[in-house]
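Attaching the record inline, Q. Sequence:
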Amino acid sequence: MTDAALMMAEPAIGMRSLRVLARLLDYPSEELQAAAGELIEIIDQEHRLSPGLRTALMDWCQRSHDADLLELQAEYVALFDKGRATSLLLFEHVHGESRDRGQAMVDLMDEYQAAGFELDARELPDYLPLFLEYLSTCSEAEIGRWLGEIRHILALITARLEERNADYALVPLALLALIGAEGDVDVHRPEVRNEKRDDTPEALDAVWEEEAVRFSAESDQDCALQSAEGRRLAERKQGVQSDAVRILSPEAAPQVKGR
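Structure, as predicted:
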């Protein structure tokens, strides 16, 4: 990813806070810890977020600055590198390993290239921190459009990270808050409480066995059917009205409601 120490200029069009949220999802490093003061300063200036949410984000930044780096890294690996429930690859939550995911990434790459956004990292285009880097270069209308497109994914990730008592839940929650959609998480919390963890040794073994079955699928439809979560999310998205979504103005942001 780009320099985690930030040292960043104001994006020409978009919002600096999106770049901060991207950095908070990076693998913990000494550079990221050293940037805590700048991260806190930018978050404090983002008045589209409620005071409670800003405080929660700033407190997390300070805790990360003060924590043992190896412990932070171990927590990150446990959350994001084991299982798929909390994956930071957006399309994995919708398409699983079906070929539809590949086409979705091609389409996203086309969006990047049309906007003159050149990738200089080895991450996949649907990697959430990279996607937020792109959004930080966009107009507020485009940011609102994109966050509206992925709000169902953000809400699911938020609920799953909350269930694991992870501060990282604050990032997708803040993204939802930018479009006034924090309430979307409520839909997912009951189902997430009843989900079986996919990061246990038994669950990981089952995934390896499932991969062998998926590899032998005879059609794209067979592959897609193996992604039950993708089906549920797609159905839920179809049931949501496609009204225009916009970024809240600082004046319209809630002033009392916290996390």
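The CA atoms of residues 28 and 73 lie 6 Å apart. Residues 1-12, 215-242 have pLDDT under 50 and may be disordered.

More tomorrow.
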